[in-house]
Amino acid sequence: MSGMIKALLIDDDQKLGDLLKNYLKTFDIDLSVVNDPREGITTIRGLDPDLLILDVMMPHINGFDLCKKIREESNKPIIILSARGESDDKVKGIDLGADDYLSKPFEARELVARIHGLLRRLQKDSDKNPDQIFKVDQQRLEVSLNGAILDLTTKEFELMDLFIKSPGVIFSRDEIIKEIKGIDAHLFSRSIDILISRLRHKIEDDPKDPQLIKTIWGKGYMFVDSR
User: Fold this and answer.
1) Pairwise CA distance, residues 210 & 27, whole Å
2) Average pLDDT score over residue span 70-95
3) Count of CA atoms in the C-beta half-sphere (13 A) of 48
4) DSSP state, 131?
5) Distance, CA of 5 to CA of 31 (rounded, Å)
6) pTM
7) Which fold does the domain 5-126 belong to in CATH?
8) Phi-psi bin for 213: left (phi > 0), alpha (psi -120 to 50), beta?
């Protein structure tokens, strides 16, 4: 990534936030800090950071619950901070969709290394198929088609991301419901069909004769790599 990295720390420890803010600035990381986790989701929407850092032990909403809420609408990279020193915390954090984990107390330099390492890894993942006409930017939650960014909803992005990662794989409606993060329990098969239809209107030359997202009758849907 070039330029300043925008990071958001959600942690009720104001002193830690102030210290990290000053330190990270020297590494081209612009850190914003929220001390009340209840303001977390609103701040994320307004700030649109490249990366999130969540403390586990917070009043009102703990880091795990907040991570779960964030994953209902965002794929942004998340680092979990925990002072408890329990290995279960790491497993729980990763299960809920966090990308990395750091135990408190930690050296500020280690956090910088984790941030850079995580963003490099995600960038590498999105650059794996440079010849594809579709490209996924995980930091910005964007999919581009021949260089033009598609106007996708969160669910459309997640479905497109799933398809691009697995060309030629047939997904049943149930598998799609299971794969898309934070999908509503009441989102049934018919809603998946509507989601597919909306996506086709955005990526197909002729949505009535789809060449990219194929219907495999009796089985589900398959994305065809169009290189």
Assistant:
1) 47
2) 80
3) 5
4) T
5) 8
6) 0.56
7) Rossmann fold (3.40.50)
8) beta
> How does DSSP classify residue 51?
E
Burial of 8-36, coded b for 16+ CB within 10 Å and e otherwise, reads: bbbbebeebbeebbeebeebebbbbbbbe
| Domain spans of the chain, in order of start | 5-126, 134-223
115 close to 50: Cβ distance less than 8 angstroms: no
- C-beta contacts of 127-133 below 8 A and 24+ residues apart: 131/227, 132/164, 132/225, 132/226, 132/227, 133/226, 133/227
Q: Spelled out in words, what is the top-level CATH class assigned to the domain 134-223? A: mainly alpha
What pLDDT is stored for residue 17 in this prediction?
A: 93
Mean pLDDT of 192-198: 89
Q: What is the C-alpha to C-alpha distance for residues 222 and 13, in angstroms, rounded to an integer? A: 47
What gap in Å lies between CA 146 and CA 148, rounded to an integer? 6
53-57, 115-119, 130-134, 184-188, range with the lowest pLDDT: 184-188
What is the rounded CA–CA span in Å between residue 214 and residue 174? 17
Strand pairing category for 142-145 and 148-149: antiparallel
**What is the spatial distance between Cα 157 and Cα 143, in angstroms, rounded to a whole number?**
7
Distance CA 26, CA 202 (A): 42
The token duo for 21 is: 């803010």
Answer whether 88's CB lies under 8 Å from 44's CB: no
One-letter identity of residue 110: E
Helix (H) or strand (E) holding 17: helix 14-25
